[in-house]
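BACKBONE GEOMETRY TOKENS
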Amino acid sequence: MTRNEQAVVDGARVVAAAHSSPADLTDTYRGAAGVFVHLPITSEEDRHIFASNILTAVQTAQPARVVVSPTCPQHAL
């Protein structure tokens, strides 16, 4: 998933999915060689919901690799 389609490298698959939908996330992660997870900046309540949805999707889809980042470079400033 990306917010900026221009930033996608050749060969990458770009999909749209909502963090609020475990089904969307599962479909997005299924068959992926790797998933890089960064929780969006939002309310604490939403972050817990999104994290739970991501965990459910990862457990169901079982992508080859998962990387979870506690922060994102553009937010580290």
